[in-house]
Specification:
five-stranded antiparallel beta sheet, five-stranded mixed beta sheet, 3 helices, alpha+beta, rod-shaped
């Protein structure tokens, strides 16, 4: 039979045997009217809903303050429970299993047990989340590079237009170490005038 073991922050623990039938559901919370009452200030009055659905148990957050985590991850909606799943409600740890189990006593043992008992479904979810994070970071990097490139292109276009309005030249060739056609023509005219002055007879 499925079992839900509860370890409270004060070190006390209890185990609840869960039936396998389609009509079973239990509200988990701090209020006494909940089917599974947990006297802990970190647990909301009606924290989560546990129910037997489609051949297995499913847990769903009921809008609690501290949320629900399964093996360190926060599900986006109702989440199926698998053998060895570690459920955290505030500061309270719950262990779901098909056989009687006791929660680890020490924090180190609890962390090791949680890592070893991660279900295949949660591992796949973690891999998808990691892949989505890497893809998002890669896209952000390319977007940043594109933004920097567009900034420099806009700056170059602005300076080119300003140079054209002042000098009438389309490109500021002096930036490239090339003499502009106007400057070249002026240099040629100055050189010819100088030669003419040197060749003119002196009176």
């Amino acid at each position: 039979m499925p079992r839900l073991s509860i370890l409270l922050p004060d070190g006390s623990e209890k185990t609840i045997v869960l039936p396998k039938n389609g009509e079973y559901f239990a509200r988990i919370g701090r209020d006494e009217h909940c089917e599974i009452a947990i006297p802990s200030p970190s647990v909301s009055g009606e924290h989560a809903l546990l129910q037997y659905k489609d051949g297995g148990y499913v847990i769903e957050d009921l809008g609690s303050t501290n949320g629900v985590k399964i093996n360190g991850l926060t599900p986006m909606g109702p989440a199926a429970l698998y053998e060895g799943d570690d459920i955290i409600l505030g500061e309270v740890h719950l262990k779901f299993s098909e056989e009687p189990v006791s929660l680890p006593v020490s924090e180190t043992d609890r962390e090791n047990s949680k890592e070893e008992s991660i279900s295949p479904a949660m591992q796949n979810l973690q891999q998808l989340a990691d892949q989505a994070t890497r893809t998002a970071r890669k896209n952000y990097m390319w977007m940043a590079l594109y933004a920097v490139l567009m900034f420099f292109l806009a700056l170059f276009a602005g300076l080119t237009y300003k140079h054209y309005k002042v000098t009438g030249e389309l490109l500021p060739l002096q930036w490239l170490g090339i003499e502009s056609p106007k400057d070249a023509l002026k240099s040629l005219e100055n050189q010819e005038n100088q030669e003419n002055q040197e060749e003119a007879p002196q009176e």
